[in-house]
Specification:
This protein has 871 residues and is of the alpha+beta class. The protein folds into seven domains: 92 residues, no CATH class; 55 residues; 133 residues, no CATH class; 88 residues, no CATH class; 128 residues, no CATH class; 149 residues, no CATH class; 76 residues, Up-down Bundle (Single alpha-helices involved in coiled-coils or other helix-helix interfaces). The protein is built from 27 helices and 20 strands. Helix 4 crosses helix 6.
Amino acid sequence: MKSPALGRQKQRSTIKAQELPDNNPVLAKDEVCKLLLAHAEIKEALRVPSHADSFTLLRALSHAPNKFETLRNGGLSLAEAMRVADLLDCALQAPQEIQERKKESRSVVTSIFLPCLCIVELVVCGLLVWTLETSTGGWNVGTCSLAMFTNITCKDQTTSRCAVDVEVRGTTGGLRFYTMQGWNLPVAYKTEMGGSNFEAAYLGDRLKCCNDENGHVGSCCSLMDQVSEIFCDNLALLGHTAYDGTECPSNNWDCLFLIDEVDPARASAVQPYTPPDLVSFIVAAGVVFIFLLLAVFWSLIVRYCHCTALDRAKARFQEYLKSLQPEARTAEAPKLRSLLRHLGGAAGMKLEEMKEERATVRHAADRSPIKKEQSRSPGQDSLQPVKRRRLRRHDMQGQNVGEACIKSEGLDWHSFWQKVKQEVRTEATFPTTTMGSEKAMKLEVKAESLGSEFHQKMAAWAERCAEFKRKRATWMPTRPCCPANVFFSNPVAPQEEDPPCVQRLSPKELSRLRRFFDRGHPMFAASLQIDTPKAPRAAANASQEDAGGAACMKMWPWMRDLPSNIWAGRGWAYDEQSGLRRLSCAGGAGAMEGVEVWEAVGTAGQPAAQLPTAGARSAAASRPAGDASRILPGNGVKPAKVLTKQQAKQSGIPNISWQSGLFCWRVDWSERSKGASTRHRQQFGISSFMKDGLNEAEAEAAALEAAKAFRAQLVAQGRIKEKLRDQSLSSDVVGVAYKKEQSKWKVEISRPGGGRRIQGGYFTSKAAAEARALELRQLHGLQRSVTASASRAELPVFQPKAPVPGVCWDRHGQRWWAICSGKSTKRRGFAPSDHSEAELEKAFSRAVAWLKKQRKEIAAQGNIESKARSS
């Protein structure tokens, strides 16, 4: 039986043994670090940074090929070097204090840094919203441009300041247009020393070119270039510079406006507007947001960026350990144990895996004849679990930590690492499983199947679209850039930065294009067979003959802005040279029922001597319907003079018409209020769009789009009511209507001057009814002719020999415009019969005479009023 004193003595000796540095990893680590840090040369010998901590020193020392020589080179004495070498293995098993500090720092970031970042982000966003809300002061934001002088001319202004009309475009709530009449440009006054004299200049950077060469306010006529009729807020188109040498502004300028409460289409007030600088707010919010994301996802980023090479090395190490023979494993047991310790700490091996591998290595070590020189305690023979630590890079003779660890143990692992790298590259290049190889094979088969004729055509269309943009060709609905462009729901001209049209098609549009292609539609034919108009031939059925002949004579049988999904597949095909061409003659409304626009067939404007007499007309009307020669020139009755004219430019939409005299698209509508109907109109001139750098054709198209958007807005507001029209039961030929009672088409043509209507009868076929209506119009001289509209650049401008104030040339109306200003401004135009010098002088004289007469009347009226007041 053991005595209690002997037990207490043994326990006391055990405690003393544990307190020795040789048995306590923490004490061993403290003593080793104290010896190492006492010499400044040790960090240079270990090739670690000057700010390296104690754990980095221990790890670098364990990787050194010759530890004793390294310690001696670092300045340690012989006794100190031997002591450090003895305590190094025990010191490496000490827990790391850096993990606790990391956890503490992360908690500080979570509790302090994240809320601060969130508060800063909210403050920046709040300041941004507050700046946007308070910058306008309750006004509407838009873009403005000077349109014209309020009294049409720059002379004889009714006030001391120049009054102009401003066109305003709203930027919020859709595309809306407003007008502001009688707006005075803002002026800034600068007073000199003493206050006796002052200088006036137009306010704002966008109105700087409205000043004269001295930077002061000039005459009203200086606000507009007299040759190009462009106002001073858009003189960049002419390359002008301001008085300070800078370039003049272009395009519309930012402004604030208020909508008139009485007339919503007008603006009651306009003022220039400088948008607030939001770049600083956006940059600050973006930087704070990036830091916020980094703080939230920092642990995930560190885990994702962790080096995976050692993880793969750990797996290869396990395979290598299993492949070793028992004899080789016994001989390499100490070195394998050291390598396992480094791999487990750096690659993050699980605790269970490390215990299993360490048990295998320990079993091999027990059988090894190699014995340690130092005696260890029983608890130190079993390897303690090493906590997971992150491996930091540092310079160790150009080698990473894993390679240094392997070479420090003297193992030849160079071929092993080369094998691992080769396997990694192989895995990244080829699939590793059978399922992956089958999937790759399926993808290859699918890729081969994609190389069909349709996809080859898509590549050709993409190249054609790119070539179209390189040539800067003019896009039109009748001349698209490629066949894929016509399959958009709303075909538009491609922009230079846009990808090819085949890449911008939606899945539904691409599927529709594919169906048309697979069916062998003639739109995709390699060579198009364009039918030429043939001479009419006699037939038993006059309706079919006349309808076919009329259809062949026209080239474009519908409005140019008609959607492509209406005419696609109806006898028309895409041609690279001429756009869309007819493939064959379609009878009647073959292209589309109810959308065809018929033109005149015959010669217009014949002298009265060639007009048919009443007897000839009655004889022609009594002829059989199949005799088509009666309506053709040179065969009996000749066509009569055209009485009805039709504008060449058509919008194709009700309420929108082209005004050739004003060069604008006009929207007309009427509204009923209190039992009375009031007519309204809104004009969209091309001159305001030409200020954006567009040519005349592009400006006209932009004005039409603006008019359409304005009309759509009126329809949405209920101010214009759309009439539901069945296209299958309607015709664009005037005089043809469908009667539901008889279920037939009736032909009834009205005369321009009134009187008895011309009855054409009933027809079962719509094409026959349209052909009969055209025939009767030709026979009675009521056919329509298309009048061409001249472009704005083609209109001449004339200057009088002796200018008279108040008389100027109206370029749009091609007339002399006389303006008399008084209590009420009076205007009157005098148009010459032609542009000869005599007619121009005659019209100018009439305008001057009328102006003098009006001024005399105003002067006489003023004398009468002054006498009445004096009496």
